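It would be a great kindness if you could assist me with a short task in structural biology. The matter concerns a single protein, recorded as an amino acid sequence and a row of backbone structure tokens. The record follows directly beneath this note:
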Amino acid sequence: MTTPVPATLPALTDFRRIVIKVGSALLVDRDRGRVRLPWLVSLVEDIGTLHRRGCDVMVVSSGAIALGRTVLRLPAGPLKLEDSQAAAAVGQIALARTWAEALAHEDINAGQVLLTLGDTEERRRYLNARSTLARLMDLRAVPIINENDTVATSEIRYGDNDRLAARVATMASADLLVLLSDIDGLYTAPPAKDPDARHIPVVPRITAEIEAMAGAAGSELSRGGMRTKIEAGKIATSAGTHMVIATGHVKNPLKRIREGGRCTWFLTSANPVRARKSWIAGALEPHGTLHLDDGAVAALRRGASLLPAGVKRIDGTFDRGDAVVLRAPDGAEVGRGLVAYDSQTAQRIMGHSTAEIEDLLGISGRSEMVHRDDMALGVE
């Protein structure tokens, strides 16, 4: 197969918000059951370089079960669900501490975020998780994210951190997803089995032919494999996020990507903000309508969020995170958005200033009725 290569491939320095996925097989020495600290320190040096340039960085890190099974002296091989959950409970403490200590050497605070499938599939929980990640990055902390293996069962789990990382990237509107792997990208066939396999430096679009190249999962420490990475690529690129697969079996793996080391770029023609707004505008069924005053309409068109003071009437019944229609005083549709309050609460605070929300609700609620990042105006 001949893959057309763009004249200029992306560069790591092109991106402002990056999700980095680190697998157990890279992070944990499987024979000793310990973190590979020299390697982790080199990766954190790379993260520090990005962070000092103003880049937002999130890390999706496996390793809790691999660390916990060693502490608990569980046998090698597949674990029963209850043993995996116990290992995750013990190992997650060690994993979070390791990341926090490593990042502290770069003067970066770490924040632990544990997610389950529902946190990216149910809109209310999705908004909560998205807001938490955004606030951590506003405060210049690096979220360390993992699946909540202590409570997730086989029916409610992502199944691998490649897909989890892709969901996090789309949820946080990241423009790049980096999958650090035991291989330096996609090949026409598994290179360990086929000596004639050729490396593919760029995938402009994931086709059936690209999907057919994926191999099977690797080690017992990793639930991933090239197949799950291709699935992650489909999730990421459809949401406007570029993805790169690169080897993690080198020190300073991000520096290696930056300096042109061999890897595979999966490109998207969209961008995360536009893709998200298209999803809000056209893919979600609205559950209610917010009728706005002229001042609010003008503010939205200048790029502002919708505040409760600008809402004059509410129709319909909706929950937090549901899509709603935004209408001008003449009834014209201004746009659509994901509402930050359920309809009953929204009724109580509409027409009031942000400063009055705490007195009205008894808690300091969100300032915006619909945040500008959760809004699509007109035809986006």
In short: The chain has a mean pLDDT of 87. The two ends are 36 Å apart (CA to CA). The chain is about 35% helix and 20% strand. The first helix runs from residue 24 to 27.
